[in-house]
Please model this.
Amino acid sequence: MSSKKKRNKQYKGGASSIAPTVIKVSAVKRHPLHQWWLDHKRLAKPVFIITTIVAVIALVVVGIVSIIF
Model:
């Protein structure tokens, strides 16, 4: 049986360490309305969808009422 020499050094670095992430930022000159939309899209989009659905339903109801009366 051969006896191997034991490692007495600490493991440093290598593949187990996480590589640093690079965040690339580019400045873009946008129209104020477009910038507002990008900033508030998450909240504004559902509000616009609900408003459109309510407006379409109201338009249909008004059309039906005008046909009946």
User: Anything to note?
Assistant: The mean pLDDT is 88. Residues 45-69 form one domain.
